[in-house]
Amino acid sequence: MIIRRIEPxxxxxxxxxxxxxxxxxxxxxxxxxxxxxxxxxxxPKDILERAKWTHFYVVCDEDRIVGCGxxxxxxxxxxESSFFTIFVLPEYQVQGIGRKIIDTLxxxxxxxxxxxxxxxxSITATPFYIKMGYTYKNGISVPDEEGLIRLEKHR
Length: 155
Hints:
Aminopeptidase, 7 strands, alpha+beta, 28% strand
């Protein structure tokens, strides 16, 4: 498996990977209406737009994209960054790919320059991020109005 920066022609596959993962995995923690709203917000054009202001990576198993993740500035700040759009296909989960994505993001310049990294995490992914050393922002362990749990790591 290799991890590399996203290319424009990857956007459709990445969008499909995200939609499938949300529908098959995150559905245990969210309503189908919520899932479909997120799917509509992460169409190929949205992935390409996100890739303009983040460092967006894909994980490939030969020619198949099996995971993705991005890091970018937190509200334009230089000393804070945020992770975005971290997903792994259901059949590739629990094989170390998520860890590989986090390791890559934690070596990225946006991570290295930051004093604090935030993750707007799904309920589903929160236990994984906790294992990776992230903690609840301000001690709040319940979802916010967006249905996300805010996690962070200070460096």
